[in-house]
């Protein structure tokens, strides 16, 4: 490679760059972004990504509705978000430009596929005049590259037919952007060789297109400079690039191994959760049974049935599916069996925005069942943290014999980041957290030994988990209220009151088994606390860092356990003069914090289907600080 | 968890200590008795037996069996039982359900359990009424039925549960009734011995809200002329003196004939094992409801790999191909790089 691809110019150094690849759904932009991310990761940058695809599988080609985009932020220092504004927009057609130009700030670069800017395409995109000539791109550095024709020309030696050859233009774009930012090409070319090992023509076409893109940058004198972003100083270790959904799937496989239990997934396809089903289905050699059920209710019911049989039962879904699963989750609360529920939140209500992110299922997860039906709720804070959150959810489910809801979201699910791969030995031994009942646990007055399915562990309040096949422990469970201890159907008012309170105490008692919330307050004397939960972690970290860089003081704490709250949360929120709660909903955690601790928490709320940008949170912090300043005076 | 010795048990061993709470005279009692009497004969083990039910009068059944059991939620028993049977192919899982539970709120799950051929023995108590909610019409109630929710008569066309199961290509489908213990036990035994999904419809009298719904065919006097016993390898024949029989007409439909008129040799010889469910389906269409001659017995019993076994074999194959799961290797299966 070194002989064909050489560097002619001196590269200018940048500390961070945000690139957005945008094109028609069929243009392969997710793939281009993904490959660019991988080479950047191998090069050693820190990074964060944000794919953005249309809800329709194939919206009409060339329309704004059909635009698919992938944003990657890479840097020489640790970063937390995919970036607020792209420094470079790669637009494969007018619709892509139309959909994304508004996010560009003056000085940003736009790389256009000029071949696609014909009258028809402009019209389809909704342009009444050509944006290249009407001044609407003023202030931007516009580079016009005839990507389609250059690709067609470049791939000729592969013998590919014109229609297929055009499909390699994403690799041309990738090659060109790789040149601009001094990315190594080898990882991409190696990947192409492996991925298309059995299809020589496509392999050859993509390789040629990629190299042609690079060489175009090198030879066409339209780019004034090339850039480079040096590797970041990440802690030593082995890294891999991981998305939230993959991390959840791997986390539950790990949990099964650590608990020495077979995993059973009952699931119904739903965006954006289906990738967890897909990933788990690949790993049957771990003894993972994946069951694509007839509907959401069957998915959770089957997982619960498997849990009754002694498996680690898991179900995956998104908002509408969580609605449907509510009754079966209530049954799991009543049966007191372990069950892990992954809810990958998306925009709601109803079908809402299937491919967009939101955090609006929090109250649903905590309260969304009839009757007094508490359960633990946990939320991962980064894509990589999804791995550990899945293990934590399984630990709580197994130890306390309860369903646990994990609140991930579309942003974490599809976003990716470099993830330090843990050593298996460092992971918790879940098999030590529970055991199956094997002997009777009660002596009757007549001396006979019997099994009482609701005789609880005095410490955890968990009831014994006796799986079918165990001689002598036959018992009947059910959704009808059961008598304390013996577990027979009971309509006794005093017993019901007791059982409702015991189930609540069991879940509340988990507080003693989870870590206190940590506060990042470098100087220790900030007056404002920013309290987030789940996926807002990155944006809040980045915002807090920026605010501190300007000399102001702000504390940050991020909740991973939403029910029960960490034991010290009340003290933490009361210790600050002001509490700001940014959420991608209309204030659900804020409501809980106010109700629980009588603290007048303020909200920063956004429900646009997009994650917070750093600047959104930063501005909210500054205005809170200003308000504090006025109060102080 | 299984040893080879056949356990010697009695009905008492299979009865839980819970007081049975159905209305006095309810047909559910005789079904419970038939099952409790049958279990010792099957040589089944209590610890390896699970009864899963939904919601409704019949769904209280698991509480009365001294086995493992789950009284789940309305309509979802086949789904919960699917998870259990797939996760634990070593167990024998029974599903107890009713016409409202299995065919109305849970209709979807029943169909899918049948088509997948999950290893479940499903007993559907059909009393053509909602008993537990005190007497509304059900998806098997006859048209025009006057109930609390249909004061002017029901407008709904009813399901025929046997036809429905055959439409889903269930590998075992049978019908029996609560007044004939011997027939029930024999039918349940056959269902138990079938590997895969077995559905047995039991005509069950709800003496409180739909008393006598099946009298026209199941009362002692009416049985000979109104029940058409299906017996594998035998001509389909009924009537006090076997004077009636069934033939397949030119359109492939089963029709009732006088044996005298068509001749004994031309009667349909019942074959449970025909792969195509069409023949069994035409038999299921002989009666619209329990008011005309109605077939009972095993309609269909064909071999088809059961779902849990297929799932299990994929796990075994995957482990043979890729080697047993190695967590450390999985976590490093993507592109990795090292920061020194
Ligand atoms: S209501 Fe009918 S079905 Fe229910 S227990 Fe009473 S008699 Fe039996």
How would you sum up this structure, described in words?
The complex is a heterodimer of chains A (633) and B (340). Chain A has 633 residues and is α/β, with parallel strands linked by helices. Chain A folds into 4 domains: 228 residues, Pyruvate-ferredoxin Oxidoreductase, domain 3 (3-Layer(aba) Sandwich), CATH 3.40.920; 189 residues, Rossmann fold; 79 residues, no CATH class; 114 residues, Rossmann fold, CATH 3.40.50.920. In chain A, 36% of the residues lie in helices and 19% in strands. In chain A, helix 6 packs parallel to helix 8 and helix 9 packs parallel to helix 14. The longest helix of chain A is centred in the first third of the chain and has 20 residues. The N terminus of chain A is likely disordered. The longest helix of chain B has 16 residues. In chain B, strand 5, helix 6 and strand 6 form a beta-alpha-beta unit. Chain B contains 12 helices and 12 strands. Chain B has a domain of 210 residues: Rossmann fold (3-Layer(aba) Sandwich). The model of chain B has no long low-confidence stretch (mean pLDDT 96). The chains are: A alpha/beta (633), B alpha/beta (340). Chains A and B meet through helix 1, strand 9, helix 9, helix 11 and helix 12 of A and strand 1, strand 2, helix 2, helix 4 and helix 11 of B. Strand 9 of chain A pairs antiparallel with strand 12 of chain B.
What's the arrangement of secondary structure elements?
The complex is a heterodimer of chains A (633) and B (340).
Chain A: E1 11-14, E2 16-24, H1 29-43, E3 46-52, E4 67-75, E5 88-91, H2 94-100, E6 109-113, H3 119-124, E7 141-145, H4 147-155, H5 162-165, H6 169-180, H7 186-195, H8 200-219, E8 226-229, E9 237-243, H9 244-259, E10 263-267, H10 274-281, E11 289-292, H11 296-308, E12 312-317, H12 319-335, E13 339-345, H13 362-367, E14 377-378, H14 385-400, E15 403-409, H15 410-414, E16 416-420, E17 442-443, E18 449-450, E19 476-478, H16 493-508, E20 528-533, H17 537-549, E21 555-559, E22 561-563, H18 569-574, E23 578-583, H19 588-597, E24 602-605, H20 614-632
Parallel strand pairs in A: 1-8, 2-5, 5-6, 6-7, 10-11, 10-12, 12-13, 13-15, 14-15, 20-21, 20-23, 23-24
Antiparallel strand pairs in A: 2-4, 3-4, 9-16, 14-22, 17-18
Helix pairs in contact in A: 1-6, 1-7, 4-8, 6-8, 7-8, 9-10, 9-14, 11-12, 17-20
Chain B: H1 28-42, E1 49-53, E2 68-71, H2 77-87, E3 92-98, H3 99-105, H4 107-116, E4 120-126, H5 161-167, E5 172-177, H6 181-193, E6 198-203, H7 215-218, H8 223-226, E7 227-230, E8 237-238, E9 244-248, E10 254-258, H9 259-262, H10 278-284, E11 294-301, H11 307-322, H12 327-331, E12 336-339
Parallel strand pairs in B: 1-2, 1-3, 3-4, 4-6, 5-6, 7-11
Antiparallel strand pairs in B: 5-11, 8-9, 9-10
Helix pairs in contact in B: 1-6, 2-11, 3-4, 5-10
Bound molecules: iron/sulfur cluster (SF4).
Iron/sulfur cluster binds next to loops of chain B.
